Amino acid sequence: MRIMITKEYKYLLILAALVMLIGCHTAKSALASDYDERPENKQPVLERPAWPNYDLHDDRSFAAFSHVQTAPKGEGVHLIGEDGNVQLGRTTIYRCKDATYLCYDWDVPEYQDWWFFRMTSGSAIIDADTGDRYVVQSHEHFPLDQCFWIYGHKNETIRLVSRYPALPLSVKRVKIYEASAEARQWMSGEGSISKTYDLDDLRPKARKQEKEKPKKQGRIIR
Questions:
Q1: One-character DSSP codes across 24-39
Q2: How many angstroms separate the CA atoms of 51 and 88, rounded?
Q3: Please, which residues bridge with residue 91 across strands?
Q4: One digit per residue, pLDDT tens: the chain, 222 residues?
């Protein structure tokens, strides 16, 4: 059986195909804008490994690192806890397709070069609406549950990057939970939980500026 296709019908088919292509492109662009590229995080130099008999109360037993990843000054948010305490460093969250990266930026002062840090397992990003916890998987390049030294970065901002499971796009509001750990001098070990934040407010500044870019206005003709 033959089917006759008129010229007008051909034009309609072409127009429908163009509309579908534009729709697919728009959907892909919208999907891409939901995600960030993972943060840069170079391999630091291990200047001294931790002692085999690592001791939390003997800082000589801590591993020591230099040449760690740095970050622009002022990027990120000083998180405020539910108890009102303000985080000393700044936090940025990169929402990627395969994982979530939480960056902790610390401004190293001029008066002291050596600082020790600790990232505890059990820390999590909490979906403030459902209570679901996305638990830390790794502290990139550094140990979990052990203190470690970083030095050689006076007047610079260093960046520590932790990897968490990928957050579903349904996650809009989050709390950041830091698990408790054993205390020592200069480190209380108390856990903490932040107040609720819109996830987009914790994402990279460039991404936020792109999202808030003003719409193009027409010409003013006098």
A1: HHHHHHHHHTT--PPP
A2: 29
A3: 77, 104
A4: 334 445 454 454 445 445 454 444 444 444 447 999 999 999 999 999 999 999 999 999 999 999 999 999 888 999 998 888 888 899 999 999 999 999 999 999 998 899 999 989 999 999 999 999 999 999 999 999 999 999 999 999 999 999 999 999 999 999 999 998 898 888 888 889 999 999 999 999 755 554 555 556 666 665
